[in-house]
Amino acid sequence: MRETTRNVRALTKSPLLNVMINAAFKAARGLVRDFGEVEHLQVSRKGPGDFVSVADKKSEKILFEELKKARPDFCFLMEESGRIENKDKDHTWIIDPLDGTSNFLHGIPHFSISIGLQKGNEIIAGVIYDPIKNEMFYAERGGGAFLNDRRIRVSARTHLADSLLATGIPFASTAEKDQKTFTQSLQALMPKVAGIRRMGSAALDLAYVASGRYEAYWEGSISSWDVAAGIIIVKEAGGFVRDLKGGTDVLGDSSILATNEGLQVELEKTLKAIYAK
Asked: One short Pfam family name for this protein (predicted)?
């Protein structure tokens, strides 16, 4: 982790990004320790398919303390603690301390820390860190997107038949209407694409779109802390981010499509016909 930290810092120009990256590294230490002893974690049930662990709460506490220390007047929106108002109403940290909790609790090494910074109605900086693979994805408005010390770009593929897509499957508690809509989207896309993946971390799905590993990611019911950081990382990597009704209000609509230029029009048309009914 030390070598990656040094490389990331060398490429980072913004003090805000330094703060975000350092906070993510610090919170990740505890997650890695707890992941190594996942069978001993204390777990409480929040709802069907939706768990929260002690590790989740510890990670959020570290992120909150580190970010507040650096920018004491910024507001917060966090998965576990909700919204915390402060003096600077124009800036909000949007945090998911452990995106992929179910993976984490089942010993599956695919989860992340996600930190987005919102200014007004726009996400201006984002960090997504996968501590198991030691992959730090980050971006700031106008500065490009990076994976550790390497500039990243979205895929250049233009045909769905060659494309790998990612999505999120609705939980058991999701409304029946939304489950049916998701099934319709699968039926519309599965025959056209090379494959569809459900990996369990929306933040990493977006990071993978930004780095060209996936051609697109969509989900019809998503929380702002899952996607805030990924929005700016995909955009700075040359991608497009829309809500599933064809607009740009991803956080307000709680739905998302992230893809490259070559597939945007076709995917947007297909999914809008299903989700905008």
From this structure: Inositol_P
